[in-house]
Design a protein that fits this description.
Radius of gyration: 22 Å
Shape: elongated
CATH class of the largest domain: Alpha Beta
Distance between the termini: 34 Å
Number of helices: 15
Number of strands: 5
Number of domains: 2
Structural class: alpha+beta
Strand content: 5-15%
């Protein structure tokens, strides 16, 4: 199984998901859900996390976590590990309940955090479990818009502060913001390398965390080469008109940027054997 690249630093923000093994339930009842949120609260305290949003579905969960001390991996091991032990003991079972490793997408705070938080609380609506986000008790939506008391694991200061300084008007504007997101386009189409959601400038600043992992085959190739140029940029029109330059770019696309020979062959509409011969030329 591929091992995802974890980019961790002080103040990093993530959208985290963890799914049930074989799509089985990770929350069998409300007691399980309360146990999970209480466990999350303890983890946020121990690891100095901020949880901006959450949504507990039946066979998976979503979190939006800010790590003040750059320690997502440590906290996630604690969260999933302790919850698994408690779940197994309560339901008299053994073994894993989560499917492999959790998924974490690094988020640029200024441009995408608010949108991701909206995405998280709208999950039950998209899944057609409810018709209105307020009908789902197990997300942060109800507390953020002032319907329910805030769970200790949750912080709403940043989200509400994006609308106005006054709490009640901010809660109303947040509610309107979430409602406006129903039917909006999928935000994850803009994710780079399956792991970063942000501007090109944001990704460029993170390159130092990726360097040195290019040859680690355990990490997905898209993450190892997160900031690589597109094939369209590598093979501009003026490049294609010069065979020597084109062949040089083919080698560069494979050896430097990690594109597969098949990807390049398909893009350039050339035979795979032609690309292979060019790459192996000395």
């Amino acid at each position: 199984m591929a091992r995802p690249l974890r980019i961790e630093y002080d103040g990093a923000l993530y959208h985290v998901t963890s799914r049930g093994n074989e799509r089985k339930l990770v929350f069998k009842d409300d007691t399980d859900r309360n146990i999970f949120l209480d466990t999350l609260h303890k983890v946020t305290q121990r690891y100095n996390w901020l949880c901006h949003a959450y949504c507990l579905m039946n066979n998976h969960y979503h979190l939006v976590i800010e790590t003040s001390d750059g320690n997502l991996s440590k906290g996630m091991r604690q969260l999933n590990g302790v919850y698994t032990q408690t779940f197994n003991k309560r339901h008299k079972r053994v073994g894993h309940i989560f499917q492999g490793r959790y998924k974490a997408i690094l988020i640029q705070k200024e441009s995408h955090l608010l949108e991701v938080c909206r995405y998280v609380v709208l999950n039950p609506v998209r899944a057609k479990a409810v018709t209105d986000a307020k009908e789902w008790r197990w997300s942060s939506y109800r507390a953020t818009c002032g319907i329910d008391k805030l769970h200790p694991c949750l912080t709403t200061d940043w989200i509400l502060g994006q609308f106005t300084k006054q709490k009640r008007p901010a809660e109303k504007k947040y509610k309107e913001f979430v409602e406006a997101g129903i039917g909006e386009k999928e935000i994850w189409k803009s994710v780079k390398g399956q792991s970063i959601l942000g501007s090109d400038e944001f990704v460029e600043k993170l390159i130092k965390y990726v360097r040195g992992h290019e040859d680690n085959k355990e990490i997905p190739r898209s993450q190892r080469y997160v900031n690589r140029p597109t094939l369209e940029k590598i093979f501009k029109e003026d490049v294609l008109s010069n065979r020597k330059v084109r062949n040089s770019r083919i080698k560069e696309a494979v050896n430097r940027y990690g594109y597969s020979q098949k990807e390049i062959a398909d893009y350039l509409e050339l035979y795979y054997t032609t690309i292979s011969r060019i790459v192996n030329e000395k």
